Amino acid sequence: MKSAVVTGAGGSLGRAIALRLAQDGYGVALLDLPGDGLDESAAELKAAGARYGVFPIDLRDAAALVRTLAEAESLGALDVLVNNAAIYPATPLLDISLDEYDDVVAVNQRAYFVAAQAAARSMRARRAGSIVNVASITWHGGWEKLASYVSTKGAAVALTRALARELGPDGIRVNAVSPGAFPTKAETIHENPEAYNAFVLDHQSIKRRGTPAEIASVVSFLVGPDASFVTGQTLNVNGGWVME
Ligand SMILES: NC(=O)c1ccc[n+]([C@@H]2O[C@H](COP(=O)([O-])OP(=O)(O)OC[C@H]3O[C@@H](n4cnc5c(N)ncnc54)[C@H](O)[C@@H]3O)[C@@H](O)[C@H]2O)c1
């Protein structure tokens, strides 16, 4: 039985990724803070007839994260890890406190590392597995008021490359997906939604907004057999905004 762990599975993109992986035949472990988001994702997976488990967790707690990844193997040996959870407080650089900075790093960077390390231990024993880290278009060109977030998203790409290099010989592939701007809760950080929508469409070459399912399908590709020779890569999914 194939199994996958998705962090931030109570959020917009995480839910779509979890649903897609469930459709692909994985038993999916939903990791997120306890609350409505996680409950709603669980309800959607249930309605879809998916095989899943709900694992409420604060990802800043590294020991709990390692424990939870082991518990998640009740769904089957771990084949896939998707590091997707993130926080994105919008704060001008000079007002970012060290507490806020540490929090962003703990969720968006340290938890990615801790989960990947624990997953690699399990995957290595079977010489198979795939890890996807979710980055962000913001790291390509920088973004104002998001210095802490943007730096962790650069770290997600760097971690992807380092892990791909080290784990390839063990049969484990590691890639990143870098979303552009998706109309999700994350967008509420922008003061004027209409102006932001117009700004996004102006920059994208595809003149419509992307959907969470269009991130999920790329994750599905990267973890699946069609990407068996792909590792260390960052796939930009941004409607043709940044091209590199
Ligand atoms: N939405 C976009 O346009 C966009 C663009 C670029 C990158 N991304 C990236 O995509 C990923 C998903 O973003 P989203 O739009 O779905 O955001 P979201 O806020 O809907 O989802 C993020 C999830 O992470 C969870 N989370 C936060 N802190 C946590 C903690 N301490 N412990 C456990 N869970 C925690 C939240 O509860 C939430 O459910 C993130 O990595 C984000 O950086 C999103």
From TrEMBL:
InterPro entries membership: NAD(P)-bd_dom_sf (IPR036291), Sc_DH/Rdtase_CS (IPR020904), SDR_fam (IPR002347)
Cleaved signal peptide residues: none
Matching Pfam families: adh_short_C2
Alphabetically ordered keywords of this record: Oxidoreductase
PROSITE patterns per record: ADH_SHORT (PS00061)
Molecular function via GO: oxidoreductase activity
Alphabetized Gene3D superfamilies for the sequence: NAD(P)-binding Rossmann-like Domain
Similarity field: Belongs to the short-chain dehydrogenases/reductases (SDR) family.
Protein's recorded name: SDR family oxidoreductase
Organism of this sequence: Kribbella sindirgiensis
